[in-house]
Design a protein that fits this description.
mainly alpha, two-stranded antiparallel ribbon, 2 strands
Length: about 350
């Protein structure tokens, strides 16, 4: 996404993706409810009234923790890089990432908007790039770690999915592992990554897939120089990296636990909670296999596919709707409201600056 004066372009595209988000969300809900012949809005409301309010509260708090630990991680990184920002500002950065990642394919819109909000708050581009790259590395790494632990200690969770579901999880695992290696190479092995990408460009050029090869290679080198300058600040900061990884693990687990708490709220047995958590970690991994906004559709399919192995279709639909609404849709609405407030504050600040400039 190109930028002009530090601000990401493509406002019309973001509007289109916002509309598409609601369309896909509606289709996803329809697809989930159509899986259960016995499902009806009245029965779903009855199911909600039977839920344990304490476990439901835990689910909501877990969803809020997902946002909070994202902001706390950003706050920690900015402070260590010498640009401390208060928690409300860091919450706006985290909300921008979560909201725009939800409405764009593969989460491509989250990081540019997150960096833009940092930019308007006086954070240099090199610092925001370092923060975003660190976040991407440890966010991806945390998904791989939780998924690996789930597979080792609760292999039955993976096997509970159908053949197509297992295929999506395997593809997602390969994608997430590749991304973790890629981000790691950007941070620590610039020359090796540059060589791999340059080789790929040259092969694509020979196959006539890429035009203006020399220009593309020069852009690649400039991009690598920019990343190298930004990520050089991370080298040797092991405590910071461990802290970032810890926050990312809690951030990830907070979202996964929403489904577990919703399961317990509906009367599920506490002894089955580890299995539900492992199942949800597989869902998170598999959700990256298809690049839809907010992983909608594929996440819903995997949740229904997994839940159906241990409960009836109607129970699966109820649990999926409740947990997905809490962990995703409500979360996106909260983050969207924070983004809206932040955007309004930016416009007010810009208007005041323009009036001051005109008056002088």
């Amino acid at each position: 996404m190109k930028e002009k004066n530090g601000k990401p372009s493509g406002g019309r595209n973001r509007l289109i993706w916002s509309i598409l988000f609601f369309v896909i969300a509606a289709l996803s809900v329809w697809a989930v409810t159509s899986q259960a012949k016995e499902f009806s809005p009245a029965k779903f409301l009855e199911y909600l009234t039977r839920n344990n309010p304490w476990w439901l509260t835990a689910a909501v708090l877990s969803m809020l923790s997902y946002i909070f630990f994202d902001a706390l991680m950003i706050k920690t990184l900015l402070r260590d890089f010498g640009y401390p920002r208060d928690l409300p500002k860091c919450l706006s950065y985290a909300s921008a990432d979560i909201y725009f990642s939800a409405i764009t394919p593969s989460g491509t819109g989250g990081q540019p908007m997150e960096a833009y909000f940092m930019f308007v708050d006086g954070v240099p581009g090199a610092i925001s790039t370092a923060v975003v790259m660190t976040y991407l590395l440890f966010y991806t790494l945390s998904i791989v770690i939780v998924g690996l632990l789930s597979f080792v200690f609760v292999p039955g969770a993976f096997l509970s999915f159908g053949t197509f579901g297992r295929l999506l999880i395997i593809v997602g695992a390969l994608i997430q592992t590749s991304l973790a290696v890629f981000y790691g190479l950007i941070l620590w092995k610039k020359k090796l990554l540059l060589g791999i990408c340059d080789w790929g460009l040259r092969v694509a050029g020979k196959l006539h897939f890429v035009k203006n090869l020399d220009e593309k290679r020069e852009k690649l080198k400039n991009a690598m120089d920019q990343y190298s300058e930004a990520t050089s600040m991370l080298r040797g900061r092991r405590k910071l990296m461990l802290k970032t990884l810890l926050f990312n693990l809690i951030h990830r687990l907070s979202q996964m636990l929403v489904s577990v708490f919703c399961f317990l709220a509906g009367g599920g047995a506490l002894r089955d909670a580890p299995f539900l958590l492992a199942m949800q970690s597989n869902v998170v991994i598999g959700s990256s296999s298809i690049p839809t906004p907010g992983a909608m559709g594929v996440t819903d399919y995997l949740m229904i596919n997994g839940f159906s192995s241990i409960m009836s279709p109607e129970q699966s639909a109820n649990l999926e709707l409740l947990s997905r609404t809490t962990s995703f849709y409500v979360c996106v609405l909260i983050c969207g409201a924070i983004v809206l407030i932040k955007t309004a504050l930016i416009r007010i600040r810009k208007s005041k600056a323009e009036k001051t400039s005109a008056g002088s």
